[in-house]
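Residues determine shape. Take a concrete instance:
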Amino acid sequence: MGVVEQQVHAAATTPLIALLGNPNCGKTALFNRLTGARQKVANYAGVTIERKEGSFTLPGGRALRVLDLPGAYSLTAHTPDEAITRDVVAGLRAGERSPDAIVCVVNATNLRLNLRLVLEIKRLGLPMVLALNMVDVAKKRGIEIDTARLSQELGMPVVETVAVQAGGEKTLLAALDAMPLAGGVKPQPLAAIDAVPVEETQREVRRIIDATVSFDKDTGNLSEQIDRVVLHPVAGPIILAALMFLIFQAVFSWAAPVMDAIKDGVDALGRWVSAGMADGPLHSLIVDGIFGGVGSVLVFLPQILILFFFILILEDCGYLPRAAFLLDRMMGGVGLSGRAFIPLLSSFACAIPGVMAARTIQNPRDRLVTIMIAPLMTCSARLPVYALVIAAFIPNREVGWGFNLQGLVLFLLYAAGIVSAMGVAWFFKRSMGAKGHQPLMLELPAYHWPHLHNLALGLWERARIFLTRVGTTILTLMILVWFLSSFPGAPEGATHPPIYYSVAGMLGRALEVIFAPIGFGWQICIALVPGMAAREVAVGALGTVYALSSTGDDVATALTPIIASSWSLATALSLLAWYVFAPQCLSTLSVVRRETGRTRYALLMAGYMFALAYAASFITYHVALAMGG
């Protein structure tokens, strides 16, 4: 038997444990605690729903495989995520082995909601363990759970876990070690679940809660006290707007020293490399193509990390679901549910996870509309473009009550994306004939201090993704842009820089015919083309284009003053307007096609966003010209 065959045989014979539970119960944190780095992430066959599998070894030496199933509230599936979970645990998923045992993870602070799923899973007849997670938070809130009585009522082992703490999984490991896990147990048909009326299940949940859970009346619920202010119909939206405004202020104020240090470092390295090389194509490639292009993008890493620092804190402390409730009324005005807030928020990182997160929306029309407007959220790839243009044309000064003018402009650009998304949603919903507004039902987790370990991992992941793109996609495209911008070269007696006569120059001048009415010169047109692969590439492309148009070696740090002196204010404002609506990168359009199952929706997205971008830039450019810009 070969090595590959041995691995396949081992995987087939190793007991498989499935982790499942409601969203926000700490299931994925427990999965990470059990498996560490021994994880495989892929998609389920035929859909773009994430499949996470890992392995670990019990204290007794037995190896187990573990599958982290998508969060679900019930096996009566209302979303694609819940359908995957139902089919896997019921043994109905083609090509998927049914689990040998179930670990049902529940939030100890909200057993009333979580136990419905536990009772449904129990009717399948599979070996089960109940992981009572977040017991530390429950105790702080005065919630006491009689674990032994709960185990007796449910007829299964019940263990207490704290997934966010080292060692918080030990009780679960001991319970799994004590289970026989012989395998071969087939789940009961789903009809066993459907045969029990929902009211009957809810009565059973209430009976179990009354028998096993006690509440300390004297213990104040801090989360409820905070929510009286945070979810207030007047104070709540003001607090949310203030938080977003302060975040964008920090993006410019906090990042400036680190950005300057990166600029100085790239500039010094570029001069050192340039001094040791003779003039020629290789010198131009390294100095103009790599340092002028990649260096222009790398400098924006601090701003991206600061933005995600705040987003990760708000997510980890439990505020983001509250923001969804606050925005539910506004979204209801355009026909969307507040549940669309989470996919739209994800799109501030990248439209791709935002589009995929729309799977959690039950209503098919709401799901489609959310997918179509998700790219209007300002993704992190736009931030380098915004930061470059703002730094070149918007004075770095305080206005009003000590606010930074550059941060204010950035806030307005993000707000413009949100407002435009709401407008497009209203149009789509009306044109699709949707009626009414579905009320939002969403679990609010208890507030807690952000976990520094999770925060550090999240920031490292964002930095790794950005640096990987810089070192792969952006570097490759910059080399291609340099090549197209350098050949065939200038003819004898040329009056323009050599790039003007290159392949890229000819393409830019051809596109200028289309984009001249919105103020874009041929240099900007060249940058728009590789920007279709990744938006931040446009900054690197501009760096390379202007590097090849100049005679100095410090172009990696000189891009801001170069565009400040060569563009009009009207052109700069037009480019900002363009990127509020900029047509999506090709990878996002590919995901839209896969998620919707229709090519026409990807083409519709590209078409309507191009039309909006052109119209917004045209209006902005000519209004700015009329006002002297």
User: Anything to note?
Assistant: The CA atoms of residues 2 and 8 lie 10 Å apart. The chain has 28 helices and eleven strands.
